[in-house]
Amino acid sequence: MNTIFQTTITRIGGYARDALLDDMLITFREGAPADIEEYCFIHQHGITAGDLQVGGIMELGENRYPITAVGEVATQNLRELGHVTVRFDGETQAEFPGSIHVTGPTPGDIPLGSTFKFLL
């Protein structure tokens, strides 16, 4: 598998972990507006070397999650803003244009320094 995107979580917004309770992970690159940053896992912005695709893998720390749906602007949002909303529900149709859906258990926590990547 080739790495399409790889980064490290550098900050965690005050409400970011609340989204995990709703089976969601919301990311944004460093430099996000403060009101948005509060709800996101903030990461170093990296190069996106390809498109996110169904059948690919999201890797978060030591855990791997098969990608089941990709919204039509998810790759663009990741490339330009470092922003994605990951839903841990295994749906095969993206709920929103920027959503990515994966199969697997929602992490209970995501510590600082965790690696976050997409593979294809």
TrEMBL record:
UniProt modified residues of type Phosphohistidine: 43
Membrane-spanning residues: none
Gene Ontology annotations for the cellular component aspect, listed alphabetically: cytoplasm
Pfam families named among the record's database cross-references: PTSIIA_gutA
GO molecular function term, any single one: kinase activity
SUPFAM superfamilies (alphabetical): PTSIIA/GutA-like
Family annotation (PROSITE patterns): PTS_EIIA_TYPE_5
GO biological process: phosphoenolpyruvate-dependent sugar phosphotransferase system
Protein name as it appears in the record: PTS glucitol/sorbitol transporter subunit IIA
Organism (species): Serratia oryzae
